[in-house]
Amino acid sequence: VLANLFLKGHEQLMVAIILLGSSPCTAMVLVWGKLADGNQEQNVITTSLNTITIMFLYVPVVTLLTGIQDIAIDRWTLLISALVFIGAPLIVGMISKRLILRFKGEGWFHDIFRPLVGKVAIGALLMTLVVLFSLNGDVLLNNFNLLGLVSLPLLIGFVIVVGLNLLISRFFGLHYKEGII
């Protein structure tokens, strides 16, 4: 609805909004949750559920939403992308955790590996943002009006999701740490 409202006539930008809006946040939830001092155990559970959800529902939801807008999309490329960018890291993470626990032990995993990966993840997030903006700086500056058109539905969608999360958290009497996911 938001993509249609703001981007009618800009088919590629509508697809971008549909692709972004249809994917629940996954791994970066852990980084942002840590930065916001949220409940990390709950964030791990939420991220795991989001990953499973995206694996099974992302392609059908994007296909449905692009179909409603009468926009053609290559479903096989979409499926391969979901498997490569979500499925592969999930499998590698599961395998590496088992191997680390088997060969190094739980203490090493929690005391050495996890803190190191946490620092690398925050650095990787910041580096990703820097690289994305530096590679696309000219496009962003030369199409500032389109950037605004794309930003509005994403920002409104974010406010809706966070607002609902805060309302549900308050309704169930959750504390700040449990409400930040």
Give the radius of gyration. Answer: 19 Å
The number of helices is 9
The SSE string, one letter per element, is: HHHHHHHHH
> What proportion strand?
under 5%
In the predicted model, the low-confidence regions spanning at least 5 consecutive residues are none
The proportion of residues forming helix, as a percent range, comes to over 70%
User: How many beta-strand runs?
Assistant: 0
Query: Structural class of the secondary structure composition?
Result: mainly alpha
Shape verdict: globular
Determine the N-to-C terminus distance.
25 Å
Mean pLDDT: 83
Structural write-up:
The protein is an all-alpha fold and 181 residues long. It has helices at 2-7, 11-22, 28-35, 40-68, 75-103, 106-135, 137-142, 144-171, 176-179. The mean pLDDT is 83.
Topology:
Elements (H helix, E strand, L loop, with lengths): L1 H6 L3 H12 L5 H8 L4 H29 L6 H29 L2 H30 L1 H6 L1 H28 L4 H4 L2
Helix pairs in contact: 2-4, 2-8, 3-4, 4-5
Task: Describe, in short, the structure shown.
By secondary structure, the protein is mostly helical. Helix content is 84%, strand content 0%. The two termini are 25 Å apart.
Task: Jot down its keywords.
mainly alpha; 9 helices; 181 residues
